[in-house]
Amino acid sequence: MAALGWLTPRRRSATARSVLAGEASAEAARKSTQEAQAPAPAPAEPEFPVHGDDRAAAFFDLDNTVMQGAALFHFGRGLYKRKFFETRDLARFAWQQAWFRLAGVEDPEHMQEARDSALSIVKGHRVRELQSIGEEIYDEYMAERIWPGTRALAQAHLDAGQKVWLVTAAPVEIAQVIARRLGLTGALGTVAESVAGVYTGRLVGEPLHGPAKAEAVRALAAAEGLDLSRCAAYSDSHNDIPMLSLVGHPYAINPDAKLRRHAREKDWRLRDYRTGRKAAKVGIPAAAGVGAVAGGTAAAIALHRRRR
What was the pLDDT predicted at 112? Predict the structure, then answer.
């Protein structure tokens, strides 16, 4: 039996060092298995907006990008309330606004008609008067129509220490009111001619629309010492492709069909803060207590349908 003693396992107590070695080996095996099974970590996206980059800025279109609907039409409603013009003019403003919001695009003919109407209405009024009224109109018709998602994007740039500008075809006085109320740096907008502080009913140059926006952004960037390749621009309209193409970080916000298609081709980022189908997303403008708006809009839509 003694000869077979080597076949019998020896009973030895584990030393502290052997216990430590065993535990370390088991932990290494377990960790190796987990690492083999875990997917490779995705590369981190670069920080944007870049904090402290004082050569970067952001440029935001206004109508249907920052604010639902068109600022000029809301401004017209406010002027009607203050008896700047008659009910038939309000019906025209209401129809133009309904078209803009239902179609979701800027129709050049409608926009030009709206600008001509606004210029004729303000002719002979003082610039300071319109600026003061603009503050009131913002509270009455515009404040509740700011897209929270776009507002958050603008705030991210401000928090990063960057300047943020509105760029719009709306009158510069109205654009400046909106920019100030949102805490933005300032605004680029259409300039109406004034002499001795009184509007003449004419524009300085042309409306800030399409290519004119790109030129305004280019000029401001040069004056401010900005590097456009480090800047961002945001818009809903294909008319603003020239402006979006200027910057290194273009965004399509609530885009129309042409801009959405272009953005996908160019691999631009898209954000859509609307929900549901287009007519449900943007809705028909509310009467806001003024019966003439609803009546004028309904009559205009009915007339449009009869013409089709």
Answer: 62
How far apart CA 95 and CA 107 sit, in angstroms, is 12
Which pLDDT tens digit goes with each residue over 65-89?
999 988 988 888 888 888 887 666 5
Percent residues over pLDDT 90 in the chain: 46
Q: Is the peptide bond before 255 cis (omega within 30 degrees of 0)?
A: no
Distance CA 297, CA 278 (A): 18
Average confidence score pLDDT of the chain: 77
**CB contact set of 67 (below 8 Å; sequence gap of 6+):** 142, 145, 146, 147, 178
DSSP string computed for 113-169:
HHHHHHHHHHTTSBHHHHHHHHHHHIIIIIGGGB-HHHHHHHHHHHHTT-EEEEEEE
Q: Give the 3-state DSSP-derived string for 37-70, with helices as H, strands as E and coil as C.
A: HCCCCCCCCCCCCCCCCCCCEEEEECECCCECCC
How far apart (Å, rounded) are the C-alpha atoms in residues 201 and 196?
Answer: 13
Taking the C-alpha atoms of residue 56 and residue 221, their distance in angstroms, rounded to an integer, is 9
Entry pTM: 0.69
Three-state SS at 203 = strand
| Active-site residue list | 61, 63
Q: Give the three-state DSSP class for 189.
A: strand
For residue range 251-308, list pLDDT tens digits in order: 999 999 999 999 999 999 999 998 743 433 333 232 222 322 332 333 333 333 333 4
- Dist. CA 270–CA 243, nearest whole Å: 16
Q: Which of these, 290, 308, 274, 283, lies nearest to 97 by C-alpha position?
A: 283
Q: Which two tokens stand for residue 20?
A: 């430590």
